[in-house]
Amino acid sequence: MSRWTEEIEQLDSSTDYERIVFLLGSCEFAWDIEKALEFALFRTYGVPSISGLLSRTGAFLSNTRKRYDDTELLLSEISENGQDSARGRASLARINAMHGHYRISNADMLYVLTTFVVEPVRWLERFGHRPMTRKEREAWTNYHRALGSRMGIDTIPEDYEAFDAYGRAYEEAHYCYANSNAEVGEATRDLLLSFYLPKWFVPLGRPIVHALCDPPLRAAMGFRSPPAWLERFVLKGLQVRAALLRRLPGRRRPRLITARRRPTYPGVYSIAELGTFPKGSKET
Fold first, then answer.
1. Residues of 18-52 as b/e, b for ≥16 C-beta within 10 angstroms?
2. Is the pTM value of this prediction over 0.90?
3. Sign (positive/negative) of CA torsion 143, 144, 148, 149?
4. Where are the domains of the chain?
5. How many CB atoms lie within 10 A of CB 80?
6. 203-228: b or e for each residue (b if 16 or more CB lie within 10 Å)?
7. Which of 117, 171, 238, 253 is least enclosed by beta carbons within 10 angstroms?
8. Strand pairing partners for 121?
9. Per-residue pLDDT averaged across 109-123, rounded?
C-alpha cells in the first residue's frame, strides 16, 4: 500500500473528497487518470450536438493544441488547488463564462460531467495497477457533483451508479455519425498521438487509438475498426503495464499538470487568458 493510499484511508469521502481527488489524480494514478480524462472528453465528441458546437466555433479545429491545453489547465487548476481556492474560483468563472456564450443544453453538460466521473473508474478497472476503492469512487463522484453544481448543471445524479446509468443511456440515444464528430475526433486523436510520435508516424498510430474505442464510439466517429490482433495487443499491453506497476514502488511526489512546460504557454500563463472569447473581445 502506497503512502498516498494510506492517507486516503484516513479521510472521509463525503467531506475530504477534494484531497482524495488530488491524491488520486496527482499521486496514486497520475498518468492513468490523465489519460482517462483525455478519453472522457474524446467520448463526448461522439454526440453531434457537442462536436457540432466545437466545429461551428472554429477555434477547436484552428488551434486544437491550445484548446486541449486550455481545457486541461482549467480543470487541473481546480483539482490541484481546490474549488474554493482563488485559482479554483477563477478557473470555474472562466469555464462558466465560456459556456455562457453558447446555447448548451443541460443534458449535454451533464453528459460531459458524467464522462469525467465514469471513465477514470472504468480505465483503472481495466488498466490501472489497481481499481479505485469504494471510498475513492465515492469521493471521485462527490467531487464532480460539487463541480457540476458550481457550473450550474441541474439534475446531477446522486451516486456513481446513477452517473453510469445516465451516461450509458445518453450514448445509446445520442451516439450517431456526423461530419463534425469525425472532424473534431480526428483532430483530437492526432493531437494525442503527436504527444508520443513524430508527425510522420501519427497516421500509423491511429489504429491504436481506434483499438481503445468501443464499437459504438468508432461508428459515431467514423473510425475504421482495427484488426482484431491489434486490438488484443493494445489491450494486453496496457494490462502488462499495470502488472509491472504493481511490482514497482509508487510515485514519491505529486505530478502537477499545471507545472508542466508546454509549447502553447512557454512561460507563465494567466487563467484569464485560457479558453475562448467572443469575437472582437479577444483573439481566439
1. bbbbbbbbbbbbbebbbbbbbbbbbbbbbbbebbb
2. yes
3. negative
4. 8-249
5. 20
6. eebbbbbbbbbeeebbbbbebeebee
7. 253
8. none
9. 98
